[in-house]
C-alpha cells in the first residue's frame, strides 16, 4: 500500500496492490469526526498472478501541474505494468506491460526526477532500469545484490540518488548516472523488504528488515561528501560508509563491501589463520578497539601497517566475532562495528 504524494480530485488517494492481481485506488473521505476509504478506481493486471508492488510518479516535491499521474506495478509473473490515472474521474488506464524478470518481480519504482525511467527488482537477483518509452529492453541490469531484490526507492530530495535492498541483507546506495558500482553498502541483518526516505531529513533512510526489525540509516556522509562517480571508471573511487543510528540516537559506522577489499566476521578459532593471510597482503591494516555505549569499534589504523592483531580490552576476557578488514592503498579510514 502506498499513499499518493498529492491530492487527486481533492482527496488523498491510497494505492493497493492485492493478491487478486489488481491495483485498487481508494480515496480518503472525511465526515464529521470519522474518515473512510472509498473505492476510486481499479485495474486488473493479469489472470492468475499476484500484484506485488506499486509506486506513484509523484514522489518529488514540486511536481509540474501538466505532468501525467502514473503508477508502476509489478507482479508474480515477473511483469511490470505502467498505468495512467485519470484525475478528472475514476479511472486507471493501462499504458504498457512488459516482461522484466524470469521470476517474481518483487518491486517496481519510479525515478522521481525523471518519471519516464523506472526500476525493478526480481527474485532472479537482478536490479534493472527501464525507459518506459521503449520498455522492451532494459537500460541496465545489475547483479550487485546476491539474492532477490525486494525494495527500491528514489530519493525525493537529491537527484540521481537511489536506495535498494535485498534478501541478501544489504542496503546499497547508487548514483544513477553510474550503475556499475554502488556508492555505499551496509549489512542490516535481515532481508530488506521496504525502504523509505525521510520526507524532510534528506539523509535519513528507514529500512524494514524482516527479522532484523526496523533500522534508521544516516546516509549524510555517503551522499554529502562523495563526488559523483565517473562513468568511465569502474572501481577507482573508494566507497563511503553508512552510519547506523542506535535506539538512543548513538551513531554506529558500518564498513561497506567494495572493490579491492574484504570484510568479514570470523571466530577466534579462525583468527590465527586469517591474521597469517593478512600479513601476506601488501596493504594489510591494523585494527584498534575503542569503547562505545553498546558496541566496540574496531578502528582501521593505516594505511601501511602490517599488524592485524586484535587486542582485547582489559575489562573483558574475550571477544565475540572479530571483525577483520583489509583496504587497498589510498583508501580512506573507516570504523567497523563489532558486538561483544
How are the elements arranged and paired?
Elements (H helix, E strand, L loop, with lengths): L1 E2 L9 E5 L4 E10 L2 E11 L6 E6 L13 E6 L3 E7 L6 E8 L5 E6 L6 E6 L4 E5 L8 E3 L6 E6 L6 E6 L3 E6 L8 E4 L6 E4 L6 E5 L5 E5 L1 H5 L17 E4 L5 E4 L7 E5 L1 H12 L6 E6 L4 E6 L20 E5 L8 E4 L2
Antiparallel strand pairs: 1-2, 2-3, 3-4, 5-6, 6-7, 7-8, 9-10, 10-11, 11-12, 13-14, 14-15, 15-16, 17-18, 18-19, 19-20, 20-21, 22-25, 23-24, 24-26
Overview features:
340 residues; mainly beta; globular
What would you say this structure looks like, in words?
The protein contains 2 helices and 26 strands. With 340 residues, it is mainly β. Strand 17 (194-197) and strand 18 form a beta hairpin. It has helices at 220-224, 268-279; strands spanning 2-3, 13-17, 22-31, 34-44, 51-56, 70-75, 79-85, 92-99, 105-110, 117-122, 127-131, 140-142, 149-154, 161-166, 170-175, 184-187, 194-197, 204-208, 214-218, 242-245, 251-254, 262-266, 286-291, 296-301, 322-326, 335-338. Mean pLDDT is 74; it is low at 228-241, 255-275 and 280-340.
Strand segment tally: 26
Order of helices and strands, N to C?
EEEEEEEEEEEEEEEEEEEHEEEHEEEE
Structural class: mainly beta
Describe the sheet with the most strands. 5 strands, antiparallel
β-strand amount: 35-45%
Supply the number of helical segments. Answer: 2
Helix content: under 10%
Low-confidence stretches: 228-241, 255-275, 280-340
Mean pLDDT: 74
> Which value, in Å, is the CA radius of gyration?
23 Å
From the spread of the alpha carbons, the general shape counts as globular
- Termini separation: 39 Å
- Strand order in space, largest sheet: 17-18-19-20-21
Amino acid at each position: 500500500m502506498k499513499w499518493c504524494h498529492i491530492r487527486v480530485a481533492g482527496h488523498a488517494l491510497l494505492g493497493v496492490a492485492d493478491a487478486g492481481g489488481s491495483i485498487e485506488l481508494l480515496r480518503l473521505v472525511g465526515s464529521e469526526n470519522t474518515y473512510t476509504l472509498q473505492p476510486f478506481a481499479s485495474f486488473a493486471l493479469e489472470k492468475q498472478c499476484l500484484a506485488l508492488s506499486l509506486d506513484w510518479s509523484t514522489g518529488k516535491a514540486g511536481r509540474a501541474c501538466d505532468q501525467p499521474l502514473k503508477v508502476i506495478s509489478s507482479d508474480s509473473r515477473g511483469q511490470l505494468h505502467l498505468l495512467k490515472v485519470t484525475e478528472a474521474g475514476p479511472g486507471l488506464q493501462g499504458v504498457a506491460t512488459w516482461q522484466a524478470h524470469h521470476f517474481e518481480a518483487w518491486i517496481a519504482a519510479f525515478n522521481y526526477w525523471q518519471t519516464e525511467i523506472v526500476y525493478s527488482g526480481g527474485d532472479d537477483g537482478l536490479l534493472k532500469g527501464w525507459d518506459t518509452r521503449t520498455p522492451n529492453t532494459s537500460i541496465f541490469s545489475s547483479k550487485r545484490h546476491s539474492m532477490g531484490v525486494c525494495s527500491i526507492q528514489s530519493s525525493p530530495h537529491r537527484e540521481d540518488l537511489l536506495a535498494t535492498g535485498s534478501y541478501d541483507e544489504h542496503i546499497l546506495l547508487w548514483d544513477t548516472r553510474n550503475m556499475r558500482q554502488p556508492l555505499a553498502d551496509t549489512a542490516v541483518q535481515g532481508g530488506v523488504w521496504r525502504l523509505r526516505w525521510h520526507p524532510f531529513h534528506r539523509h535519513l533512510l528507514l529500512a524494514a528488515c524482516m527479522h532484523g526489525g526496523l533500522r534508521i540509516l544516516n546516509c549524510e556522509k555517503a551522499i554529502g561528501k562523495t563526488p559523483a562517480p565517473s562513468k568511465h571508471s569502474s572501481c577507482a573511487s573508494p566507497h563511503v560508509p553508512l552510519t547506523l543510528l542506535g535506539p538512543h540516537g548513538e551513531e554506529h559506522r558500518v564498513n561497506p563491501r567494495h572493490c579491492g577489499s574484504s570484510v568479514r566476521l570470523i571466530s577466534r578459532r579462525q583468527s590465527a589463520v586469517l591474521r597469517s593471510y593478512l600479513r601476506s597482503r601488501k596493504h594489510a591494516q591494523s585494527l584498534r578497539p575503542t569503547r562505545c555505549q553498546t558496541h566496540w569499534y574496531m578502528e582501521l589504523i593505516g594505511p601501511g601497517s602490517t599488524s592485524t592483531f586484535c587486542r582485547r580490552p582489559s575489562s573483558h576476557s574475550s571477544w565475540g566475532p572479530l571483525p577483520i578488514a583489509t583496504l587497498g592503498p589510498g583508501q580512506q579510514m573507516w570504523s567497523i562495528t563489532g558486538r561483544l
